[in-house]
Write a structure and sequence with these properties.
With about 110 residues, the chain is α+β, with helices and mostly antiparallel strands. The chain has one domain: Beta-Lactamase, CATH 3.30.450. The protein has a three-stranded antiparallel sheet with strand order 1-2-3. It is globular and about 55 Å long. The two termini are about 35 Å apart.
């Protein structure tokens, strides 16, 4: 049985987050980059999109965080052959996730 924990961070206002502002500025769905999760326990890749009504009025910004740990776990479980590997890379060629067993990033305290 899976365990789900819901919480509300006191004083949290999504409108102050960069993914919210960037999606509004773009006016369309975007990959908003990497963020540390609200509880501070993981590194996420955030996708965000402004949501408008039929009159073009902003209703809000929808977003989803893709955990890099979960993405790496997914890639580890893919069957890519005996010597193949899968990499997810930034435009600057920085490795974000891979099927390789070692994480391509480090999380430092502070």
């Amino acid at each position: 049985m899976s365990k789900h924990i819901l919480f509300e961070k006191e004083g949290y206002d999504a409108r102050t987050r960069s993914w919210y502002k960037d999606a509004l500025q773009a006016g369309k769905p975007i990959w908003a980059g990497f963020t540390i999760s609200v509880p501070g326990t993981r590194l996420d890749l955030t996708a965000a999109a402004p949501v408008y009504n039929r009159q073009g009025d902003l209703l809000g910004v929808a977003f989803v965080d893709v955990s890099l740990n979960k993405l790496t776990e997914f890639l580890h479980n893919m069957q890519v052959g005996k010597s193949g590997q899968i990499f997810v890379m930034e435009k600057d060629q920085a490795i974000v996730a891979s099927s390789y067993q070692e994480a391509p990033y480090l999380i430092e305290e502070g």
